[in-house]
């Protein structure tokens, strides 16, 4: 066997391994099986990891808010106030006073997505690698977006907005009801999955050196960026709906 044939076989093996790894990442394992009245209910791995994230966030909230003092704030309280102040200023700058009621939801989603994308560092599969999770988040956001428009404009103003800026745009505005959640869902899912593919390719090309700095980017910074982009776009859509 000549050198070129050997390289071709190695390349085929690497692509085959990448395909298997990708399928494994896309496959959602059933972590828990419950039998209720003869019916077996499967609870997926992404749901269990989400429960873990919920416990972590609730525990962190209890820890950070315990023993707060207006007269003598400690370092923990100052960190908490700075973080919450940044979130409020960021979302308030986009939404304004009319959209301030949605800041708690957006902050919660931001925290959940940030922890979800970083939890892979602890050995768990990020829930955002499950398409069902990203679809659920996108549907929750689009329901909130449409509700915000209904709440701000009333039923008449809400339906009238589909004919703006001119009646000929009505079909396109109706299509946006499906396009917006699809774009939110696939952007989040695609970026998380794409980072995995890039990392696997880098490991195949140069497993000793290249993956280290790129791992820091994809495992930490890219996950935080995707959380930021998701809530940023949701905020923009809410702002557009309430104007």
TrEMBL record:
It is a multi-pass membrane protein. Its main location: membrane. Keywords: ATP synthesis, Cell membrane, CF(0), Hydrogen ion transport, Hydrolase, Ion transport, Membrane, Transmembrane, Transmembrane helix, Transport. It is found in: Cell membrane; Membrane. GO terms for cellular component: plasma membrane; proton-transporting ATP synthase complex. One of its GO terms (molecular function) is hydrolase activity. Gene3D superfamilies: ATP synthase, F0 complex, subunit A. It comes from the Bacteria. The chain crosses the membrane at residues 48-68, 102-125, 131-150, 216-238. GO terms for biological process: proton motive force-driven plasma membrane ATP synthesis. InterPro entries: ATP_syn_F0_a_bact/chloroplast, ATP_synth_F0_asu, F0_ATP_A_sf. Key component of the proton channel; it plays a direct role in the translocation of protons across the membrane. Belongs to the ATPase A chain family. This is ATP synthase subunit a.
């Amino acid at each position: 066997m000549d050198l070129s044939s050997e390289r071709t076989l190695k390349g085929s093996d690497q692509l085959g391994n990448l395909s298997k790894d990708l399928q494994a990442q896309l496959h959602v394992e059933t972590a828990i099986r419950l039998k209720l009245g003869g019916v077996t209910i499967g609870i997926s791995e992404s749901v269990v990891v989400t429960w873990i994230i919920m416990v972590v966030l609730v525990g962190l909230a209890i820890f950070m808010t315990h023993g707060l003092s207006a007269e003598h704030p400690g370092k923990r309280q100052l960190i908490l106030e700075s973080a919450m102040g940044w979130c409020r200023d960021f979302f308030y700058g986009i939404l304004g006073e009319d959209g301030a009621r949605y800041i708690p939801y957006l902050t919660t989603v931001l925290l959940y997505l940030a922890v979800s994308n970083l939890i892979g560092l602890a050995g768990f599969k990020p829930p955002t690698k499950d398409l069902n999770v990203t679809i659920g988040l996108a549907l929750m956001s689009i329901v909130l977006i449409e509700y915000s428009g209904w709440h701000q404009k009333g039923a008449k103003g809400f339906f009238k907005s589909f004919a703006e800026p001119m009646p000929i745009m009505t079909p396109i505005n109706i299509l946006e009801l499906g396009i917006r959640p699809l774009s939110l869902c696939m952007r989040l899912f695609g970026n998380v999955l794409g980072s995995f593919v890039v990392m696997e390719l880098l490991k195949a090309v140069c497993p000793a050196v290249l993956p280290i700095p790129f791992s820091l980017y994809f495992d930490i910074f890219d996950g935080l960026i995707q959380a930021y982009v998701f809530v940023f776009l949701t905020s923009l859509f809410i702002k557009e709906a309430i104007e």
